[in-house]
Amino acid sequence: MTTFEKATHLDVRDTDLGQAELHARLLRTWRTGSSLLDRLSSVDHKVIGRRYIITAFAFLCLGGLSAMAMRMQLAQPEAKLIGPDLYNQLFTMHGTTMMFLFAVPVMEAFGVYLVPLMVGTRNIAFPRLNAFSYWVYLFGGAFLWISFMLKIGPDVGWFAYVPLSGPDFSPGKRTDVWAQMITFTEVSALAVAVEIIVTVFKLRAPGMTLDRIPLFVWSMLVTSFLIIFAMPAVMVASTMLILDRLVGTHFFNPAEGGDALLWQHLFWFFGHPEVYIIFIPATGMVSSIIAAFSRRPVFGYLPLVLSLIAVGFLSFGLWVHHMFVTGLPQLGASFFTASSMLIAVPNGIQIFCWLATLWDGKPIFKTPLLFVLGFFFIFVIGGLSGVMVASVPIDTQVHDTYFVVAHFHYVLIGGAVFPLIGALYYWFPKITGRLMDENLGRWNFWLAFIGFNVAFFPMHILGLQGMPRRVYTYLPEMGWGPLNLLASVGALLLFISFVLLLLNVMISVARGAIADDNPWDAGTLEWATSSPPAPYNFSRVPFVTHREPLWDNRDALPVVTGLSVDSRELISGTVTEAFPQHRESSPAPSIWPLLAAIAVGAAFVASIFTPWAVVWGSIPVAIALVGWFWPKDTPEDEK
Amino acid sequence: MKRPFAARLVAVLLLTALLAACEREDRPLRSSPVLSGGREEIALSTNAPGPGAPTEYKTGTRGEYEKNAFHVSQGKKLYTWYNCSGCHANGGGGSGPALMDDVWIYGSAIENIAASIREGRPNGMPTFRGKIPEDQIWQIAAYVRALGGFVASDVASSRHDEMRSHEGESRLPSPPARTSSQPGLAHPK
Amino acid sequence: MRGGLRVTGGMAAAWLLSACSGPQSALDPQGPHADNLARLFWIFTVISAVIWLAVMVVLVLGLARRVPNRLDPLALEPRAERRSLVVVGGAVVATALTVIALTALSYFSQRKLFARENPGVTVKVTGYQWWWDVRYESESPDRTFTTANEIYVPVGVPVTVKLTGYDVIHSFWVPSLTGKQDLIPGQDNEIQFVASRPGVYRGQCAEFCGWQHAHMGMFVVALPRPEFEAWAEAQRTPAARPEDAEGQKGAELFVSKACVMCHTIRGTSAGSRVGPDLTHFASRKSIASATLPMSRGNIAAWVVDPQGIKPGVNMPNVSIAADELDPLVSYLAGLR
């Protein structure tokens, strides 16, 4: 604001300005500075989203390296490469990293980056909370991996069943590190979930009624509700475990009235929705990619949305299928067989709708679509093997064997990672302004596809041949050697494909072909911004008239005017019709989220050593929150 | 300017943490042949000719056992399995003396406790030489130290997976400071 | 693409069939429970394979089909949309019906699996880190006996196995005989199976229980009834005093070294219950929970360096002098 404008309280709106001056003034208002302090204080959802994506992929690499170490050890019977203690730590780190530090955060990351762009607003709701959640996530992940380097890495599996993870059988602080890392990541996930729900409900561009919301945004919305209802269960469980291990409570101690199965119930009440938290955003990615690469809107918008919601609700009714062999009453168990099989119906609806879209559309076989086709091949196998393990009798044979390992890798890698890589190729031009290399992309896809299937299909057979999970080696006379060797070779191919992906990203960022605003000619709003988007996203907030706004308005996008250019403003509207209600001011950059995250992180880490850390640690947290919420003079205008 | 200093500070902090954590979290499934050898020689009496204290030979390396969570937890299991609780109950004593109190007739240092287990003691403590391997004797001694409250709270276990009459070892009160752990000085006042 | 699919399908079929054999295979059923499970598995597999193939065929056809270039992506043909709706709707109904049918099949199989008959033999198995304590129960207390890591059963007779955990959660799993069930501290579980044929069936712990979870195996040996009774009688007798001098020296060594602190040999003064009961150790087919086959050499290897074979196991390395090893091994090998 110029001094004259400040003095006269002149509020310049975007209605009156020409394009160049509008861009200049919005840039000044919304940009993140380039000094270190500015970059650490950024509340731009795109900056934070990019950081999230990069950090999540870094954890993918770490998790992948631990998997490669495991596969090298298992390639031969009685191999002496890795002993039992290190192996137990490796498979724990692999599972924990992939589930808590990669899969959920990367989906959230894409949500944080894309949802505000797709709903046509300038920033995510609660931007400082967004920054805070990233820092907490980073600190939690760093805490876990630094602990692993210091030999305090957990070694009880990513699910940490008691009594093995209790104080008598898991001495030291290893399990406490695991349990507290969960607290970090769950706080982070809950924060992002809240932001996404509010963004989707209140900050949509005018005219974007509920049935014009892109499918990816719907998937992130449903996922956010799942996070809010599921994460507290694991936070409670991990907190109870820390209490047992630190102050001697008896939650999980059968000798004093506790129950070892209580842990399993609490963990899996979270654990099953967790895999849907990972899978549902991937279905949103698949919808986006299929629409763009079959040159038509996705068939069956309403059934797809209803399926997403149905899957969300149903996913809370399945958790006991992880406990079929614990000796629970059979009538109850068979109920969970029914519900676990029932969830195949909404998932089937999604598959059929996508198939119908591809049937009627004209496919363009670029890398994103290749990964989506790989998704179909792999995920359907995983889903069907899931129907098999949902059956109690079959599960009594295959539970805790390599059959289940094969199943969940088919659904997680096929169902979430393949769409994710496709999404990376798809949205890379938007995020960086350059296209990824198509040739390398094809090599990436085929290596990943072949490597994955060679690695994991034999595991179905290994499980049926009697190989249990979580074993650091096996006897030569069991006859599992050849298939294990084959799986290890496949794992190596899969690993190389990820190296290729990394290479492709690095080369393309430096020397990729420059992308224009909408290189794929897709229909959703994020493609209306420049590549990469300006810090303010849209120079004027679009007015939405159709589910695929860019396909409906090919010449020029209708816009809404009236937002201030010299202060950070967004439009907030009604929940169903997105009828504009207020000009909402969006917080400016602030260092307090980082400071609060440091305070919270220190309190969490110290509290595994002494309960007093919660008391004394709350003081820096309180100070940070006071600094964060201290009233600032943002003018809150009337409408 | 600022960055090299910050980097150095972080490195130093990490190194300190590394050394500290290393000891507690190691899982030495096999005892080190070098460390297992070497006899600790302690004196049971405070009297010795001449002005000085009695001559003792302690390698000083045995302290690692009570700083390592794995050793203490193994000692806890062995305490039950080898029936130490038969005479000492779960630390409260019975026909044998209590191990959770301040009275250490033969000394409270880990070398003294290990010697008591190995040699046996008058009035009923059997000698376990040849019956309990050396490494395990030290693990049991480390656990007895935990019962006495000498072991750090992040090393010892916080509660038992079975019914016991006392809180977990990490929550037992620390013993009052003593100038020496020599026998004879441990009688109650 | 279609050729590749067929090749993949063929390889998959070949691999699947290879799973039918193996010392611990769920697809090599040797009892009615495992049979029931294997049959259910094959039904599910065939139905799943058919569904997957159908989806792949539709996908490939849909991709290959020639569709005119649509300049405006929003220009959809209402008739085609309606047709897709009908087809998708039909597919959804078919899915729902299939799911209901599979649930029903599973339910009936489950009822058969968990149905209980009057057992001919009752065994109580307690899971320890990393071995199985096996106690044969009987109405008269003097006919009970304890062994470890191997369960002998009569052929054709229902055997009830009661399961509990001593320390952490383990899982009892003998794939050729029946499904698994967990051994949970503080909880009493139960499983029942019938061995249809004489044979040796391997099993393994199937719940992660610490360092040597990988080496916590067991054998179930099915014998015709008379031979089973003879075996049980032999197990009830205490260990015979060795007749040769070397064996007697070994017996003395056993009770004078660390061995006596953890093991029981009925008929001697060794009575500790920390480790497996060794009264008829040499009558077993394996050592260290199905990790090593029974032989003199393996007994020596195990006794000298258990930590090398199963790092982390609760049996410590005990120093055994060179002239002590042979008598000790002779003694142990004589405990039939």
Structure summarized in a few sentences:
Chain B is mainly alpha-helical. Chain B has seven helices and no strands.
Overall pLDDT level of chain B:
83
Global outline of chain B = globular
Counting DSSP H or I runs of 4 or more residues, the number of helices of chain A is 20
Largest sheet of chain B: none
Order of helices and strands of chain B: HHHHHHH
- Pick out the low-confidence regions of chain A: none
Number of strands of chain A: 2
Radius of gyration of chain B: 19 Å
β-sheet strand percentage of chain B:
under 5%
Most extensive interface: pair and counts? A-C, 92 and 96 residues
Strand content of chain A: under 5%
Largest sheet of chain A: 2 strands, antiparallel
- Major sheet of chain A: order of its strands? 1-2
Measured distance between first and last alpha carbons of chain A: 20 Å
Helix-strand topology string of chain A? HHHHHHHHHHHHHHHHHHEEHH
**Overall SS class of chain A:** mainly alpha
Residue share in helix of chain A: 55-70%
The dominant shape of chain A is globular
